[in-house]
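[09:14] KT: can someone run the structure on this one? pasting the chain below
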Amino acid sequence: MEKKIWLSPPHMGGTEMTYIQQAFETNWIAPIGANVAAFEKQIEEFIGFGHVAALSSGTAALHLALIMLGVGKGDVVICQSLTFAASANPIIYQGGIPIFVDSEPVTWNICPDALEHAIRHCFNKGKRPKAIIIVHLYGMPARMDEILALCNRYDIPLIEDAAEALGSEYNGQKAGSFGAFGIFSFNGNKIITTSGGGALWSADRKLIEKTKFLAAQARDPAPYYEHSATGYNYGLSNICAGIGRGQMQVLETRIAQRRAIYDFYQKALQNLPGLSFQNEFAECFSNRWLTALSIDFQQSEISPQMLIAELESRNIESRHLWKPMHLQPVFKDALYFGGTVAEQLFQTGICLPSGSSLLPGDLERVRGAISNLFT
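[09:31] RB: done, structure tokens below
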């Protein structure tokens, strides 16, 4: 059997071991050290402004963002429905009440019209939402102008879940740098990885300083262990940060590789009936973390399940789009605003292998398997 083609495997840049070795040589292994500070600085410089806390995961970053915004028991947080569960779970950690919102069909991200309906519902019930969480799905920036206008109009803080969108841009500004907070993930399947890790961005230095304090168990500056606030063990290890330092050096290359993979699929499959891709609109620049498409069964007589099975039979990994949060059993009682865009995308969508290490022969294998099913 031919080698396995994975959806998005990690891809090392070549210099990671240098920084890992430095961590061992200096005996800085814990979540503190030169690699952590340097990695945070690299991210700050890449985004272009603001401040960063390197953390153990993107989920930890989102959890701390909600804590910093004062989300507590009974508070409402509006969240995009078409996303991974990690975008919504931290709301529950804080005892908050999630309200989910549909997507719009161009970017597949949160629908501004449905978002405003959700906001008005909350105000009519006497509940000002404590935060809005939007997601840049598969690296595609959301409609930030309209979203920011709503946040400003109703005075609601914005959290950008840019876990999948490091390097994506909207009108030339980096995704994750528009709201009160932006979160990033460096999980093993992301465009760059620290094995496991994440980061929280804010334009406010004091908020990031407090974030780092809480992430390190909220230890007060005292000659003994004293704590006046609840803390968390959310720091990123100096070893993982060393991996991140090496990965940041190849981030621009990884973005170019992912975009080239999308271009290959788009050109190679454009004449197959019923296929449509997640396309950029004028203001967007996507890092193309994953190439995602939807299949119209009426035109193609092919379903995502059929395509996934065909690819798997050829040792090629692919996946359905995220199942919307409002359809998840764990959130069955949550309110939802919008139509059926997110649900239809889940039913018709598929993510293709998009790893930066894919070779031309790998891409040709994927193209051949898809074309074979359509003929």
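[09:33] KT: thanks! Residues 42 and 248 are 7 Å apart (CA to CA).
[09:34] RB: yep, looked fine to me
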